[in-house]
Amino acid sequence: MHAMRNLEIVWEDLMEAFENGDTEMIYFLDRETGEVFSVPADYDDEPFWEEVGANGERYLEIPPFDYGQERQMVHAFIQGIGNDGLKAMLVRAFTGKHSHGKLNEILSFYPEEQERFQALREELLTTRAAHWLEEHDIYPPERGFD
């Protein structure tokens, strides 16, 4: 268990890391500086990887985007839509390939629902990041997590 610490983190950088679905990039949080940085998964710099390995308490690997969690959120979002026509279109789009892009295209014609969807997605990412930070006893002062 680490000592609880306040750490200044650029929230947008952390959110970008949590949104990362690219398996070719690995994101880290430096527990000393609060910096979020990324390197290619195949980064060929042995001294870098030795440094990260030797300082595992300092450099925390940020988990990649959780597509399963997002699918659950999208399903719940669709179930909460009152417009039956829109709901039917979204159900068809959700069950197809590349569903997220199709959902965004459809929702672009329904600004209120698109805004609600984006708010739910942001809440999902924010909550996931907050829990991850708490697991590592990091509490950014500006976020005020409970």
Name the features.
53% helix, 3-stranded antiparallel β-sheet, elongated, UPF0158, 146 residues, 6 helices
Q: What's the total helix number?
A: 6
Low-confidence stretches: none
Distance, first to last CA: 19 Å
Radius of gyration: 18 Å
Indicate the mean pLDDT. 87
Strands of the widest sheet, in order across it, are: 2-1-3
- Proportion of beta-strand residues: 5-15%
Instruction: Indicate the percent of residues in helices.
Output: 40-55%
Number of strands: 3
- Biggest sheet record: 3 strands, antiparallel
Which class best fits the helix and strand makeup?
mainly alpha
Globular, elongated, flat, extended or rod-shaped: what is the shape? elongated
The run of helices and strands is HEEHEHHHH
Topology:
Layout: H1 11-19, E1 25-30, E2 36-40, H2 46-54, E3 59-62, H3 67-79, H4 84-95, H5 99-107, H6 111-135
Antiparallel strand pairs: 1-2, 1-3
